[in-house]
Amino acid sequence: MTMTTKTGIGTVAEQGDRAPARPSIPPKLRRYGASIGWGIASIGLFTAIWEILWAVGWANPLLLPPPHLFLQDIPTTLGYFAQKNVIGSRGTGNGLTGLLMTILWTTTRVVLGLTLGFVLGVAVGAVVHYVRIVRNLLLPTILLLAPISPVAWLPVAIFVFGIGDVPAIFLVFITVFFAIVLSTVSQFESVPKNYLHVARIMGASEAQTFWRVILPAILPSLFMTLRLNLFAAWMVVLIAEAVGVGTGLGQITSMARATFNAKLVFFTMAIIGVLGFTFDWALRYVQSRMLWWVAPNQGGRR
Amino acid sequence: MTEPAIAIRNVAKTWTPEGRPAVHALRNLSLDILPGEFVVLLGPSGCGKSTLLYMIAGLEGVSAGTIEQDGIAVTQPSAERGLIFQEASLFPWLTIVDNVAFGLSVRGVPVTERRAIAVEMLRSVGLGDMLEKKPDELSGGMRQRAACARALAMRPKVLMMDEPFAALDVQTRSKMQDFLLQIWRDSGASIILVTHSIDEAIALADRVVVFTARPGQVKTIVPIDLPRPRPSRDARYHQYRDLFTELLADEVDRAFAEQEAL
Ligand SMILES: Nc1ncnc2c1ncn2[C@@H]1O[C@H](COP(=O)(O)OP(=O)(O)OP(=O)(O)O)[C@@H](O)[C@H]1O
Ligand SMILES: [Mg+2]
């Protein structure tokens, strides 16, 4: 009786082992392919609807030029991108390098602002956490300032820093800074007590505990906060460029609006879309490399 | 007479949580732990067993009395008094081998040396092929063994464990008990283990310390005079079982009565 049961189980197990014998694409690649496929399908559908609206005559090509129109005349469009980061240099026709430089300037501002906001945010958050008097003095103000839309800081940025790169970087900085400070402070409190106990038993100093236990424990959540604020950062840098810098993608959009150049508006919008997407992807990549122990798309809480 | 490794004298602990009434967790507790001894703490929930381990570890201060290790008052944590929690609490951002080497690296032991020690420790707990794995990739039992290796790498004189196997399934649990007896013999450290399982207490202990309900005190200390390994078929094993069941039932009743009075 027992014998039969055992053989029965054995057979089932063997069949189970042999089952996935058919050759197939690795699942990881298949998932990749599927997501790219759906991405193309989604954008294709969107474009098709737009093109049809144009073909039927519902979308005015002067106001809403469909993709084939605003992507068609690229050399002329590129003429609007200046190469130098100088106020007022516009329409001098530097072509592709001009476009790349414009992208580079905007990207640099975003990266600088994000980096500064992240590093200083964590630093201030740490001080607020450790030094009681700083906490009591700073936290109420931070709580008050945090919900103010970064766009509202624009006049302040221009009053204080004038016209140029600094106000744009400052706005990006402001967008992430308060969020990172608050996130750091709250994350400090949620570091598992046992991690801290282990550090103390092992004889770690305060500094060692901070750098080697607390920081890695909170970094995944901080990174998530950074990613959540990335799109806001892109938004404010464009506004700042349109108003107070005179270069970059934001300035181009603003100039295109002023000169009623719908093709240029949509071309720039397309570029901004692609850039934002690439940024998020790059941050996710950095996250998977630097925070290798966290599963992708996981907020880092455990 | 041998000097105790840990001497606990008239210790009391009162927790004063903010905005809540004070809790008298332990009162007038005295206990000696001998070098190389295996002591199990058994008692109703909330009687202060964990609190006692935290105070021996130096993570919490005493409210009254003294705790000494080798004649020196315990004032702060030390790797000589290792503590293992119910959850392994390995650092998820370090590989298993780096987790085990953490204490040594904090101490400034050079990389090659500390890695060699960590690898040896992991081999001795049967995790020789898990060196570069992430903690999440290990099973609960393996994580607990890695946590043991991390504590043992510091050559502790006393190893404390707070319900280390409570989260494991029955089979893993009995394997872990065998494993624990083996590392206890190899390391020569004293072990203080907290458990809710009477069987675990009988299987492992030289002496079982039974606590009263809160405020916790030593109710009785029962030496287990059985040669190891201790098969549960043994008649004397059953006598111990009955004894502990009875001792605990009294205290659990008292603990409940107090809860209801609140
Ligand atoms: N950090 C703390 N702050 C306030 N009260 C605490 C703290 N830690 C424990 N206590 C209280 O002290 C008492 C004893 O707790 P302790 O965790 O030591 O009990 P225990 O014997 O380990 O219980 P269990 O078997 O449930 O783990 C409990 O009433 C608990 O609520
Ligand atoms: Mg406990």
From TrEMBL, chain B:
InterPro entries (alphabetical): AAA+_ATPase (IPR003593), ABC_transporter-like_ATP-bd (IPR003439), ABC_transporter_ATP-bind (IPR050166), P-loop_NTPase (IPR027417)
Domain of life: Bacteria
GO molecular function, a single term: ATP binding
Keyword Transport part of the UniProt annotation: yes
Family annotation (Gene3D superfamilies): P-loop containing nucleotide triphosphate hydrolases
Protein's recorded name: Nitrate ABC transporter ATP-binding protein
Transport listed as a keyword: yes
Protein family: Belongs to the ABC transporter superfamily.
Keyword annotations of the record: ATP-binding, Nucleotide-binding, Transport
CDD domains named in the record: ABC_NrtD_SsuB_transporters (cd03293)
Domain ABC transporter: 6-238
Segment forming the signal sequence: none
